[in-house]
Amino acid sequence: MNIKRLISGVLLAIWISTSSADVTLKPFQENSLQQITDDRKNQPFLLLLWSIDCPPCLKELAQLQQLHNQFSASSLVLVSTDDVQIADSVEKTIKDFQLEKLDNWIFSESIPERLRYAIDPAWYGELPRAYFYDASHQRKPHSGSLNTVTLNKWLNKTRDYLSSETFSNPALNVVKK
Question: 137: domain range?
Fold first, then answer.
């Protein structure tokens, strides 16, 4: 990574984190997926990719709004595929759906195809897109809207896992319920 990219990434992270006191949008870069999985070692989680211009994505956010309070904030990761230049609109959407306590990211490179490839070489950008990660981080991709039954089934499975384990991860503020 060259120094200009590193500096611009740091400045972008500072700008995003200070642009709203209520929502923290982390800049999603080529190595971000590795950071997300490293932060959730041995923990299942759901990675959801969405956009403010995607009506089915907004329906999923509404479903998550109803469900997310039952589960650990670290078990749900939202990645906006929108351009970082519209971060204010992304933050507003997250606030509108009361999902600001989740781990929220936004694409932050000028070539989104590179980020999509870093997530999944077989993914061509269709939204909504979800990845169900189990505790060993084997993942199942899902294109299209998730229905409430599928979300509840996975979230209950995740809750059962989290309640059967004793751990605390201060980096994620994860505490056994």
Answer: 3-175
